[in-house]
């Protein structure tokens, strides 16, 4: 019996990233040690290839419309320790070591607020 392309993507060993109609896939960045969520970004083929080639996280900046290396201006690069791929290969988890705050606001994580009773409150760290 022949495997279907979907079954091959979901259970096979070949890396076959499934980009959306805009050519992007979601990338969740977590701290390699604590597993705390640091940020969410998007990758296109160029960003994925650059990340794999260099070991440093690259993303597609939707606002800039171009390749963006995390930390290119701040120096707060994300060194990729491991890439986890979800079942249908349209989302990744990048386990990274951060060279400084991940959020452009200076917070360790971009997820520094919680929704409580209809308003945002800072998370205690």
TrEMBL record:
Ranges of residues in domain Phosphoribosyl-AMP cyclohydrolase: 39-112
Matching Pfam families: PRA-CH
UniProt cross-references to InterPro entries, sorted A to Z: PRib_AMP_CycHydrolase_dom, PRib_AMP_CycHydrolase_sf
Sample GO molecular function, one term: phosphoribosyl-ATP diphosphatase activity
Enzyme Commission designation: 3.5.4.19, 3.6.1.31
Catalytically driven reaction(s): 1-(5-phospho-beta-D-ribosyl)-5'-AMP + H2O = 1-(5-phospho-beta-D-ribosyl)-5-[(5-phospho-beta-D-ribosylamino)methylideneamino]imidazole-4-carboxamide; 1-(5-phospho-beta-D-ribosyl)-ATP + H2O = 1-(5-phospho-beta-D-ribosyl)-5'-AMP + diphosphate + H(+)
GO term, biological process aspect, one: L-histidine biosynthetic process
Signal peptide: none
Claim: Signal is one of the keywords in the record: no
Source organism, top-level taxon: Bacteria
Biological pathway: Amino-acid biosynthesis; L-histidine biosynthesis; L-histidine from 5-phospho-alpha-D-ribose 1-diphosphate: step 2/9; Amino-acid biosynthesis; L-histidine biosynthesis; L-histidine from 5-phospho-alpha-D-ribose 1-diphosphate: step 3/9
Database matches in Gene3D superfamilies: Phosphoribosyl-AMP cyclohydrolase
Keyword set, alphabetical order: Amino-acid biosynthesis, Histidine biosynthesis, Hydrolase
Family the entry assigns: In the C-terminal section; belongs to the PRA-PH family. In the N-terminal section; belongs to the PRA-CH family.
Protein name as it appears in the record: Histidine biosynthesis bifunctional protein HisIE
Upper classification of the organism: Bacteria, Pseudomonadati, Pseudomonadota, Alphaproteobacteria, Sphingomonadales
Name of encoding gene: hisI
């Amino acid at each position: 019996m022949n495997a279907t392309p979907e079954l091959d993507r979901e259970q096979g060993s070949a890396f076959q990233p499934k980009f959306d109609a805009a050519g992007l896939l979601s990338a969740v960045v977590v701290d390699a040690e604590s597993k705390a969520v640091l940020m969410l970004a998007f990758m296109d083929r160029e960003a994925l290839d650059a990340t794999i080639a260099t070991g440093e996280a690259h993303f597609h900046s939707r606002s800039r419309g171009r390749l963006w290396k995390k930390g290119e201006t701040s120096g707060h690069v994300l060194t990729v320790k491991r890439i986890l791929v979800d079942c249908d290969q349209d989302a990744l988890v990048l386990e990274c070591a951060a060279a400084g705050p991940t959020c452009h606001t200076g917070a360790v994580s971009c997820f520094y607020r919680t929704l409580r009773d209809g308003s945002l409150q800072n998370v205690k760290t």
